[in-house]
């Protein structure tokens, strides 16, 4: 799991440093949407039941996908008996499950942020302001 989380951290850092993302974040509207999206994601994680629900749904789906792909995971007792080259297979199974869950969470977060972006545009239009100067 740690390797999967570190993979996402590295990808986020790499993506955030690109000129395209920097240009997008220079637009105040996009930057505000990002703050709202990630801020509410952190808040949902702090409010245990809400964050757990989203994580659980994505986690269950990612475990199902990876069980189908790999043909199952070793049980707790089988895991203790894994030796040699089997360790790399188990590592890959858990890594791909974590990465799959991270991808699903990011897809859900992107959908939510697009919703927030749309709401901000609606409020900007109602107030008669240019979208970039709403916040």
Describe it for me?
This protein has helices at residues 2-16, 19-25, 28-46, 48-70, 76-80, 86-126. The chain is mainly alpha-helical and 135 residues long. Helix 3 (28-46) crosses helix 4 (48-70). The longest helix has 41 residues, at 86-126. The model has no long low-confidence stretch (mean pLDDT 82).
Write the layout of secondary structure elements.
Layout (H helix, E strand, L loop, with lengths): L1 H15 L2 H7 L2 H19 L1 H23 L5 H5 L5 H41 L9
Helix pairs in contact: 1-6, 3-4, 3-6, 4-6
Distinctive features:
single chain, 135 residues
Quaternary organisation: single chain
The radius of gyration is 19 Å
Largest sheet: none
Helix/strand/pairing category: mainly alpha
Average pLDDT for all residues: 82
- Low-confidence region ranges: none
Order of helices and strands: HHHHHH
Q: In which range does the helix fraction lie?
A: over 70%
Roughly how many Å apart are the termini?
38 Å
Compact summary:
This protein has 135 residues and is an all-alpha fold. It is built from six helices and no strands.
């Amino acid at each position: 799991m740690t390797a999967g989380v570190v993979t996402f951290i590295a990808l986020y850092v790499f993506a955030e440093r690109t000129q395209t993302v920097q240009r997008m974040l220079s637009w105040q509207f996009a930057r505000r949407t990002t703050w709202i999206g990630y801020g509410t994601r952190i808040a949902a994680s702090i409010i245990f039941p809400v964050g757990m629900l989203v994580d659980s749904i994505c986690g269950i789906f990612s475990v199902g996908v990876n069980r189908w792909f790999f043909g199952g995971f070793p049980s707790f007792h089988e895991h203790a008996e894994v030796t040699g080259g089997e360790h790399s297979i188990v590592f890959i199974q858990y890594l791909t499950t974590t990465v799959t869950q991270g991808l699903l969470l990011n897809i859900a977060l992107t959908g939510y942020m697009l919703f927030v972006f749309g709401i901000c545009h609606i409020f900007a239009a109602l107030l008669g302001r240019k979208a970039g100067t709403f916040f």
